[in-house]
Amino acid sequence: MYTLPLFISGAEIAFIMFILVMVFGADKIPDIARGLGKGMKAIRNASNDIKNEIQKSAEKQGIDTDFTKDVRGEIDKVKEDIEEITGSVKRNP
């Protein structure tokens, strides 16, 4: 199982949550979280719209937009090369 490296530990997150409760109060935090969620959804929708418009424009101009398969293939090749090199050095979890 892969874990993402976080630069904030559990104790630091708990401290931040404590400060948030002290500053805003327990009754305001759900409203703040709801507002943040709506804001993140709006940003995601806007970025998807921009991406779709760019892709449509590129297709109208005859530009190949299917470069993600090429990039993914190159990433897979690099992963295989790394696994070949580190295969004998790799630690067992």
UniProtKB/TrEMBL annotation:
Domain of life: Bacteria
Coiled coil: none
Gene Ontology molecular function terms on file: protein transmembrane transporter activity
GO terms of biological process kind: protein transport by the Tat complex
Subcellular location: Cell membrane
Key words, A-Z: Cell membrane, Membrane, Protein transport, Translocation, Transmembrane, Transmembrane helix, Transport
Annotated GO CC locations: TAT protein transport complex
Membrane topology designation: Single-pass membrane protein
Regions crossing the membrane: 6-26
Cited function: Part of the twin-arginine translocation (Tat) system that transports large folded proteins containing a characteristic twin-arginine motif in their signal peptide across membranes. TatA could form the protein-conducting channel of the Tat system.
Self-association and partners: Forms a complex with TatC.
Family: Belongs to the TatA/E family.
Protein name per the record: Sec-independent protein translocase protein TatA
Originating organism: Christiangramia crocea
Gene for this chain: tatA
